[in-house]
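In the present case, backbone shapes were mapped to integers, as reproduced here:
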Amino acid sequence: MAERDGRAGGFRKETVDRLLRLHFRDGKTRVNGDAQLLMAEMLNVFVREAAARAARQAQVEDLEKVDIEHVEKVLPQLLLDF
């Protein structure tokens, strides 16, 4: 989990921080740098898995282009798996 150019796991640290803060009840809650890196890596894995599953769904339907409907079809099981 290397940090490059202010990015962690392919996501900007600010993006990860904002996503985490959306669910904090106390505005004073602080996030450790290691926690940000770990969350960024989890987001990276989640997004890649969603893209791979959507691509497989498009293949099953004999389509060459992945569309939002393919993501919507695989999303329920993906959320259960995570």
In short: The chain has three helices and three strands.
